[in-house]
Amino acid sequence: MIQIASIETRLVRLPTRREHKWTGLTEPIGQYLLVKMTGTDGTVGWGEAPALKDWGGEFGRYFGESAAIVDTVISRYLAPVVSGLEVGNPAALHQKMDAIIKGYPYAKAAVDFAYYDLTGKVLGVPVHVLLGGKLRSSVPVTHSIGLIGVDEAVREVARVVEDGVRTIKIKIGVDPQRDVEIVAAIRRAVGPDVALCVDANEGYATPGEAIQTIRKMENSNLIYVEQPVMGIERIAKVARAIDAPVMADESAWNAHDVIQIIAQDAAQIVSIYTTKPGGLYKAMQVSAVCQAAGIICNVNGSVETGVGNLANVHLAASAPAVTLSNVIPVSMPAEHLNGRVGGIYYADDLLTEPMNFSDGGIVVPDSPGMGIPIDPAKIDTYSVSL
């Protein structure tokens, strides 16, 4: 059986289409660490850690991982302990990683992605087969509007809708008056048939401020309100006071967090990441707990490059609880963009070919592994120093 022969890391920085920010973010997206995992037969699997030092859980429960931290954790702890592991055993992979170091889910997720990619290529099956099977042939995409001005946002959403995207997420949580204004302006711009949701990234100071602000938005027909405040018990207060469903994000990292959300009846929706729980293997555990509790989900992330975004697509295709549109990029190399805006956050990508976007969603790849090859020349072009 093929085993893990080596693990290498590369830091890349992709050029962004425009600045994309959310509440609390202080560094640009797109500078992320790649993992190259080579099997004993020469087969290569790729993973990615879209690690941001500003991204963590509520009240310090989970903490930010920078690219430098992830690189250290992988090279010093994870790579030595998983080297020699046979492909096709993600349970053992995670057991080894969790035994050698506590925490650091983004570092573990990058290794997990590369392992699934390698395993799929060796076995000749796509990653969604390894996750239990493809429930969806296409995964719908939500376009995220960051903390930009109202006029710029209105111009962008018009182009996004023209590109075929049917759900738009609006970043809020900085200024309640601006938040109400931008939601109303976008609803007027896109009309009644495009779904809108908002994401405060824990930005409101109190549940009361969140409730007052969201009530003023609710006539815009929001499909959900994501993480209005910090804290499971505090989002529960908001959830009881507004009509729109509340989605937990920063409050929901792993399956145990979801159990606490269920116990406090804090949210009707959970945003599943491939990264926050530590990879695809544990993300499917989050989905299972949500499904058992009747919580619906989407797949969300940190605006990954095509490497990590392929993992998002396979999770969204396979996780039974993921029934909502997903806040993930439509990863495309520069030569295929042709002025496209919907789902596009970068001016280029590391994939050799574009994701297939059709009828509002990304068509799930069926080739072995993650399904779309990575371009080594692009990795060389966009590599930077730690």
Question: Main traits of this protein?
Answer:
386 residues; alpha/beta; 7-stranded parallel β-sheet; 3-stranded antiparallel β-sheet; 37% helix; globular
Quick gist of this model?
The protein is of the alpha/beta class and 386 residues long.
Describe this structure in words.
- The chain is of the alpha/beta class and 386 residues long.
- The protein is 37% helix and 16% strand.
- The protein is built from 12 helices and 13 strands.
- The protein has a 7-stranded parallel beta sheet.
- A hairpin with a 2-residue loop joins strand 12 and strand 13.
- Helix 9 packs parallel to helix 10.
- The longest helix has 19 residues.
Strand order of the largest sheet: 5-6-7-8-9-10-11
Give the overall form: globular
* Uncertain runs: none
Given the helix and strand composition, which structural class is it?
alpha/beta
What is the percent of helical residues? 25-40%
Strand content: 15-25%
**Amino-to-carboxy terminus distance:** 35 Å
Give the total of beta strands: 13
**Largest sheet descriptor:** 7 strands, parallel
Mean pLDDT over all positions? 95
The quaternary organization reads as: single chain
Tell me the Rg in angstroms.
20 Å
The succession of helices and strands, N to C, reads EEEHHHHEEHEHEHEHEHEHEHEEH
State the helix count.
12
